Amino acid sequence: MKTEKLENLEPVWRQRFLPIRTNADNPVVARMWDFEDGFRDAWHVHDEAQLIYVTRGVARALTPNSIWTLAPFQAIWMPPGMLHELHAIGDVTARTAYVDAAIATEFRVWTQCRVVQVGQLLDALVVALAVSAGDSDARRAELALPLFLFELQRALPALSGTLPLPDDRRLRAVCEQLLLCPENNETIDVWGARVGASTRTLARLFRDETGLSFGQWRQQLRLVEAVARLALGTPVATVAAELGYQSPSAFTSMFRKALGTSPQRYLRSRDNT
Prior knowledge:
Structural class: alpha+beta
CATH architecture of the largest domain: Sandwich
Helix content: 40-55%
Order of helices and strands: HHEEEEEEHEHHEHHHHHHH
Radius of gyration: 20 Å
Distance between the termini: 36 Å
CATH superfamily of the largest domain: Regulatory protein AraC
Number of strands: 8
Oligomer: single chain
Shape: globular
CATH topology of the largest domain: Jelly Rolls
């Protein structure tokens, strides 16, 4: 669905969701949920900003121009009014915090989508705010709030997870097919002939609209797919074969170059976050 169509439907999506009702006295509302594999939170927007992450399973967040695949304790920050959709990959335990738009502006939290690592303290603060929202301990929430905002601002960026999406119809057709078959190893020349664009034109469009070359975009697609499958417990050798690599060692080499560590160590580091 094109961006302009999503924007035209924004009022409809707003009507489907009750407001979170954050305000100056209650500027952050935190919640925790469990979702089954395949759950889909269809396209919608919030007046508030939103931080969302999972502690179990994998989440996939979509906006009109990007896809994010989030392993445990990788969070996405959505600024106020951002159209988005969420998918559960595997059984998911999710945590989220809605932040009043005025507070987000006051504390200069990001105005664009951003993927960050959730450390132990930030996670504990989200839990504390969620628990406090359900009882009379207003003082606890009052004390936790400024520390939550402080920890949010200093959260480190995540090294993986973002996959930009183009607007050009020819490029979009290529990307959509690769999303369905990330193991596809056909060259950019083959794809150009298939969608009616020269190799040079297609290469330029990839650079202009995604900031990546064709090869880099396909590798990033495979990387985010790999993170999702590894987090669900799929063996490294199986992931390598499913994503079109000739051997587990070739896959591991790509993974290490992109993320600075092997798949096994990456998963252990996520478990210890």
